[in-house]
Amino acid sequence: MSGGMAMGAPRERLVERALALILEGEMAPGDAAGQARTALNQWRIKSDEHAAAVQEARQRWNALGGMAHDLRAHFDEPEGPLMANAANAAAAAAATASSTHRQQRRKMLFSVAGLLGAGLVAGRGVQWYWQQPVFRSAYRTRTAQMLKVTLADGRSGRNGAIGAIGAIGATGAMGSQLDLAPQSAIEVTLYRQRRFVDMAHGEVRFEVSPDSDRPFEVHTRSATIEVVGTAFTVRDRGGPVTVGVEHGHVRVRVTPPRGLAGAETRVIDLYKSDQLEIVDGQPGRVQQADTAALSAWRDGWLVFENTPLGDALAAVNSYRARPIVSNSARIDAMRLSGRFRTGDSEGLLAALPTILPLTTVVHPDGSVALQVR
User: Fold this and answer.
1) Is 114 exposed, middle or buried (0-12, 13-18, 19+ CB in 10 A)?
2) Using CA atoms, how far apart are residues 353 and 362, in angstroms rounded to an integer?
């Protein structure tokens, strides 16, 4: 070897140059990859310092081999029509576009090489990589609308399909199933090491695909629900936050309201048929219940069991263009039990005066007011 320099720690700029050639040899399509590997070998033998830089670069690349799949998509060449009819003007324009693409790809190679440099060795880049979401999407349902979301977050899709997460209504996917009731809103964010749902309001049933390496979290106003794999429903219509487990095991972390002196986070484990209500940041007693009834709306039913009328009306109104409203906290606190069709709120209105001491007043706009009899 030439150069006459003693072997030692390679200069960072040389490591980045070696990384760029390694990346191109791994990622570039067709002949470009072979040319990059040849160039790397020729560059390596120029000096001991170059050889040391290549060795260090390979160690970094091998340590971060999991990035290869995510990066490869960024370096693919355009296909098909770009090289057709080379004799005409369209082909000339396509060739120019292809050349520009290659230049952009090379710039990206050097940018990634820089990322894989000293910052990653110090650990900052690795931390950045794992903290980046691989999928993010918001889902919202309108009045009387339900939505089924299927996530490709199952173990079988963690490698090859990790960039194709979020199919709606897909079948055959080994992923989590989310059913949204009307007037519900959530945001789903999937990371390489965890799965996260921010639930703004509404009702959602979760059938979570088991993955012990990537826990599933649901964040609500009052609590965080942690799960590895199970089926459960969360209801938040503005009153109590209700969690009911159909099977499996979830852990609920109840965060006390801000400003509540001496209050601490409560951790409560729920199992099959356990149901928990959280009111103003305070968890109630865990009760045994028909937890599947919480998501009976999937089959066209609303089931209430000693439910505060204000909370029940919020669910009923999610199916009505004109709401049913009360004029007092006393009415909201009344308790309702019964089973009602989601599309038959008029039947509920007819039944209410026979169940509770109420009268109904229909307004010209179609809304209905409840008054104490």
Assistant:
1) middle
2) 14
Q: Which residues of 189-227 are buried (b: 16+ CB within 10 A; e: fewer)?
A: bbebeebbbebebbbbbbbbbebeebbbbbbbebbbbbb
Q: Does domain 133-298 have CATH number 2.30.30.30?
A: no
In this structure, is the dihedral angle defined by the CA atoms of residues 117, 120, 126 and 131, taken in order, positive or negative?
negative
Helices 31-44 + 12-27 axis angle, to 10 = 150
Distance CA 350, CA 238 (A): 25
Q: Is the dihedral of CA 324, 326, 329, 332 positive or negative?
A: negative
CB 41 within 8 A of CB 21: no
When pLDDT is averaged across residues 140-159 and rounded to a whole number, the result is: 82
Give start and end residues of each alpha helix (H) in the chain.
12-27, 31-44, 48-63, 67-72, 89-115, 118-121, 124-131, 309-317, 329-333, 345-355
Q: pLDDT tens across 35-50, in order?
A: 888 888 889 888 888 8
CATH 2.60.120.1440, the chain: domain bounds: 133-298
Domain with CATH 3.55.50.30 in the chain: 300-373
If you search the block for the tokens 């309201």, which residue do you land on? Answer: 257
Quote the CA–CA distance of 111 and 351 in Å, as a whole number.
Answer: 68
Residue 60: per-residue pLDDT: 73
Q: Two tokens at 132?
A: 């980046």
- Residue 336 CA to residue 308 CA, distance in Å, equals 6
Domain 300-373 class in CATH: alpha beta
Angle, vertex CA 356, rays to CA 351 and CA 360, nearest 5: 60
Whether pTM > 0.85 for this model: the answer is: no
Can you tell me the distance from the alpha carbon of 193 to that of 73, in angstroms, rounded to the nearest whole number? 21
Structure confidence by residue, pLDDT tens digits, 288-308: 999 999 999 999 999 999 899
Output Rg (C-alpha) for the chain, integer angstroms. 29
How many Cβ atoms are within 10 Å of 176's Cβ, its own excluded? Answer: 24
pLDDT value of residue 164:
35
